[in-house]
Design a protein that fits this description.
By secondary structure, the chain is of the alpha+beta class. About 15% of the residues lie in helices and about 35% in strands. Helix 7 packs across helix 8.
C-alpha cells in the first residue's frame, strides 16, 4: 500500500470523527499551535513564617514583572517590588526575572537575568542587587569581560556580600564598596571551582558547588580537576563555511573521571583547607556536601566508583581531618538524595535508606551511634516534601497500593503510628506539593492521564482548597472535545506470576471484533517510569493522534523501573540493563496478544527515546518474531559509549561485567534485524553522542540491513531546537508508521 493511499485512509478517518461532532488532532495542532499550551503557576516562594508567599506577575504598565506578596488567609495582595524599580539607569525596560532571592534581613533582593543554558539548564547570566530602602539597583561583576558569565550568586548570611562563580573561580563582592575579590584563582579549562563538570551535573544533579558558612566567614566548595578526562568532540557544520569542533570532557564507561575534592576557604581569600577524603579522588565520588549545622564542620558524602557504598564523613575545617559517621551499603547501587536535614541544632539528621527493602526515613545521631526508623511499613517514600520539626511531622509522597499514582502522606517524627494519607481518596492521579513553613498551607498540583495539571492553594492537614490558582480549563475543554476512548490502566502478568503495570489507549469508535496495529511506547531503565497517571503533554497528544488514525498504543513498566514497589523490584535489573528489561517487554507483548484478540500479532511496533530508544532496538534485534517495526530516537547503541556515573551505577565496571555490557547493547544483535527500523539523532547531543548513532549505522550496513534514518544538525538530546524541528520529527515518525505498521492489512 503506497503512502498516498495511507494518507487518504488517515484523512478519511479524521474527517469522519470531525463530522460526528468530535475534534480530530493534527501534527500542526499539536506542535505548531498554542491550543494546548498550559498556563503555569509560579514560581512562588513561601515566606519564612509560612503566612504569605510571593510570586511574579506581569505589570500592565511596564510589561515587566512585579514581585507580589499574597496573604493566603485574606487573599490580600501587595506589590513588594514594582517592575519600575527593576529598570536599570539607561535601560528602556525592566530586567527580566529568571530567578530571585532575598537577603536574610529582607533589605536586599538578588535578581538573576539575561540567562544562558549550560548543558541542561540556564545557570549562567547576569545578577543585580536591589537595595529596597534606597532603591539603588546595582549590577554585580561589572568587571566581567562579557555579559552572562556569573553563576549561582548568593547573599552572605549578613546580606552585605554576594558570592558567585565566574569562569571557574569563586568571587566575593562587597556590596557597599563594590570591591570584587577572587578567592580562588586557579580556575581554568581543566580546573573548576564552585561548579561541576558535565557528568556530575548530568548524573548527580550537582551544579551549584559552593556555600557560605552559617557565620559568613568561610566558603565550602567543590574543586574538579578534569585533566586526564577524555575529550569528546561534537562538530558544528552549519554555522560557518568551516566546521567547528566543540570539545566536551566526558568520561566514558571505564575511563578516567575528574579528580574531585572539597575544601574550605576564608571569604577574605587565602589558602584552602582540603578535607582528607580517603581513596583515589578519581575513583570515588563526592555527590553531596553541606555545612553540618554549624560553622566548624562539613558533612561530606563519599561514594565508591561502583556507587554501592556511601560513607558519611564529618570534616573539621581547621585541619581537614574527617571521621566516619555512617556507612550505607547495597548489593546493587545507592541512590543519592537531598533529604539530609538537621534536627535539634545539629544533634540528629534525617536520612533516606532502602536498608530494610523499602525506601524509608531514618533519624541518625550526629556520631551515627543511634539510628531510628521513622516511617516503618511495606511501602516506599517517593520523595520528602517537608520535615516540620516543631510540629513533629514528616510530609512525603507515596503510593503504597498503586505505583502509577502519587499522594501526600504524613507520619509522626517519633516513628509511632500509621502514616496518614492527606490527599483525598476521591482524587486519583499524580499530586505534588510545595508546603509552607509550619505546614499550614501548600500549593497543590494535580494531574491525571490526559488531564492537564491544575494548581490550587490548600490548607493542611485537612487538604481543603482555599483558592484555585491555575485551572487550565480552556485546554481541558479542548481535550474533552477530542475524539478518544478513555485510557485504561491495568496489569500484565508474565512468567512466575510477575505483574507489570501498563496503560492502553484505543481508537475512538473502538470495535473489539476488529484487529488493530499495536504500538508499544517504552523506556524501561532505572531513570524513569512511563506508566504514570499524569499529563504527558505533546507526547500524550501524539499518542492520541495515533489512536485517531487507528492504532492501539500501550506502555508497560518492566522490572527495574523506579516505581514504588520495593528495593528488590527496582534493583533486580542490576548488571542487566537492556537484557532483563527487553525480556520483560517481549513477554508482556506476548501476554497482551494472547489476552486481547483485537491486537494483530502481525502488526506490532515499538518506539522510545534515549533509554527507550535503546530498548526499542533491543526489542527489534532480540525478538524479531514479535516486533515488526521500531522507532528509536537519541539512543545508546553500545553501553560502553555512555558516561561512567550512570552506566557503571547500574552495570558495574566493564572489566568485571564485560558480558553484561556486550549482551545488553543493541549493537551486538544488529545483525538480527528483520523488521522495519527508523532511527534519528541530533548531532549536537552532548548526552548520548551522535557517535552511538553512527556506529549502529555502520553495523547495520555491514550486515546489509535496510533501515530509515534522520539526522538533525546541532540538535541536543531533546531534538527540539530550531523552528519546526519537533513537528518535522514527529511527521517523519508518523509517516514511517503509516507505511510500515499499516492501519489495514
Amino acid at each position: 500500500m503506497n503512502r498516498i493511499l495511507l494518507f487518504l485512509i488517515a484523512i478519511s478517518f479524521l474527517f469522519s470523527t470531525a463530522i460526528s461532532g468530535q475534534s480530530s488532532l493534527s501534527l500542526e495542532r499539536i506542535f505548531s499551535s498554542d491550543e494546548f499550551k498550559l498556563s503555569r503557576f509560579g514560581p512562588a516562594r513561601w515566606l519564612e513564617d509560612g503566612n504569605g508567599y510571593t510570586i511574579l506577575e506581569t505589570s500592565p504598565e511596564t510589561g515587566g514583572e512585579d514581585i507580589v506578596q499574597y496573604d493566603p488567609t485574606s487573599g490580600e495582595r501587595t506589590i513588594l517590588v514594582s517592575s519600575n524599580a527593576l529598570t536599570p539607569e539607561g535601560h528602556n525596560q525592566p530586567l527580566a526575572i529568571d530567578d530571585y532571592q532575598w537577603s536574610n534581613d529582607k533589605k536586599r533582593l538578588l535578581i538573576f537575568t539575561n540567562t544562558v543554558k549550560v548543558w541542561r539548564h540556564n545557570t549562567r547570566g547576569d545578577y543585580w542587587v536591589l537595595h529596597l530602602k534606597s532603591g539603588k539597583l546595582q549590577q554585580l561583576g561589572k568587571d566581567a569581560p562579557k555579559p552572562s558569565t556569573l553563576m549561582f550568586a548568593k547573599f552572605s548570611p549578613d546580606g552585605e556580600r554576594v558570592g558567585y562563580v565566574r569562569e571557574n573561580n569563586i568571587y566575593i563582592e562587597t556590596l557597599k564598596s563594590e570591591e570584587i575579590l577572587a578567592i580562588t584563582t586557579d580556575g581554568s579549562e581543566t580546573i573548576v571551582n564552585g561548579t561541576s563538570d558535565w557528568v556530575y551535573e548530568e548524573e548527580f544533579s550537582l551544579r551549584d558547588c559552593f556555600s557560605w558558612s552559617p557565620n559568613g566567614e568561610k566558603i565550602a566548595y567543590w574543586r574538579f580537576d578534569k585533566s586526564g578526562v577524555g575529550t569528546f568532540y561534537m562538530i558544528n557544520n552549519t554555522d560557518s563555511i568551516y566546521s567547528r569542533p566543540i570539545p566536551l570532557p566526558y568520561p566514558k564507561v571505564g575511563t578516567t573521571n575528574s579528580a574531585v575534592t572539597v575544601g574550605v576557604i576564608s571569604a577574605k581569600g587565602g589558602a584552602s583547607t582540603w578535607f582528607d577524603i580517603p581513596g583515589d579522588l578519581r575513583n570515588n565520588y563526592v555527590p553531596r556536601m553541606e555545612w553540618a549545622a554549624n560553622s566548624k564542620e562539613v558533612m561530606i558524602q563519599r561514594m565508591n566508583r561502583l556507587q554501592n557504598t556511601n560513607t558519611l564523613l564529618l570534616g573539621d575545617i581547621k585541619d581537614g581531618s574527617v571521621k566516619t559517621v555512617m556507612v550505607e551499603k547495597d548489593d546493587a547501587w545507592i541512590d543519592i538524595h537531598d533529604d539530609l536535614k538537621w534536627f535539634e541544632n545539629g544533634k540528629y539528621f534525617t536520612w533516606l535508606s532502602e536498608r530494610d527493602g523499602w525506601r524509608h526515613l531514618y533519624l541518625i545521631s550526629r556520631d551515627g551511634s543511634s539510628q531510628q526508623l521513622l516511617t516503618p511499613g511495606d511501602y516506599d517514600i517517593v520523595s520528602i516534601e517537608m520535615i516540620d520539626e516543631k510540629g513533629g511531622w514528616v510530609y512525603f509522597i507515596a503510593s503504597p497500593d498503586n505505583p502509577t499514582q502519587r499522594y501526600l502522606y504524613r507520619a509522626s517524627l517519633d516513628g509511632k503510628g500509621e502514616p496518614q494519607r492527606l490527599t483525598p481518596a476521591d482524587q486519583p492521579g499524580i499530586h505534588s506539593y510545595q508546603i509552607s513553613p509550619g505546614a499550614k498551607w501548600a500549593f497543590h498540583t494535580a494531574t491525571s492521564f490526559g488531564v492537564p495539571p491544575s494548581n490550587s492553594l490548600i490548607n493542611l492537614p485537612d487538604h481543603r482548597q482555599r483558592k484555585s490558582l491555575v485551572d487550565n480549563q480552556a485546554v481541558k475543554d479542548r481535550m474533552n472535545a477530542l475524539a478518544k476512548t478513555p485510557a485504561e490502566f491495568f496489569r500484565v502478568t508474565i512468567e512466575d506470576s510477575i505483574e507489570l503495570d501498563a496503560w492502553e489507549m484505543r481508537p475512538p469508535n473502538f470495535d473489539p471484533n476488529k484487529q488493530y496495529p499495536l504500538l508499544m511506547f517504552v523506556y524501561g531503565e532505572p531513570a524513569g517510569q512511563t506508566v504514570l497517571d499524569r499529563w504527558r503533554g505533546n507526547r500524550y497528544l501524539w499518542h492520541l493522534y495515533l489512536t485517531q488514525l487507528g492504532y492501539v498504543v500501550i506502555s508497560v513498566d518492566n522490572r527495574g523501573t523506579p516505581g514504588p514497589r520495593g528495593r528488590d523490584w527496582r534493583k533486580i535489573i542490576y548488571e542487566q540493563i537492556g537484557i532483563l528489561a527487553s525480556a520483560d517487554q517481549a513477554a508482556a507483548v506476548e501476554a497482551l496478544l494472547a489476552s486481547k484478540p483485537y491486537l494483530d500479532p502481525e502488526r506490532v511496533g515499538s518506539w522510545g527515546w534515549s533509554g527507550g530508544g535503546q530498548m526499542t532496538l533491543n526489542a527489534l534485534f532480540r525478538y524479531p518474531e514479535i516486533y515488526r517495526t521500531g522507532i528509536a530516537l537519541a539512543f545508546v547503541s553500545d553501553q560502553r559509549l555512555y558516561d561512567t556515573i550512570y552506566q557503571e551505577r547500574f552495570m558495574g565496571l566493564p572489566t568485571t561485567n564485560q558480558d553484561g555490557y556486550i549482551n545488553g547493547s543493541p549493537i551486538t544483535f544488529a545483525h538480527r534485524l528483520q523488521g522495519n527500523l527508523f532511527i534519528a539523532h541530533g548531532t549536537g547531543d552532548d548526552n548520548v553522542h551522535y557517535q552511538s548513532f553512527e556506529r549502529l549505522v555502520n553495523e547495520l550496513i555491514l550486515h546489509d540491513k535496510d533501515f530509515s534514518m534522520m539526522i538533525y544538525p546541532n540538535r541536543s538530546h531533546s531534538i527540539n531546537e530550531g523552528e519546526n524541528t519537533s513537528r518535522h520529527l514527529f511527521r517523519q515518525m508518523t509517516n514511517f508508521l503509516l507505511e510500515n505498521l499499516p492501519l489495514e492489512k
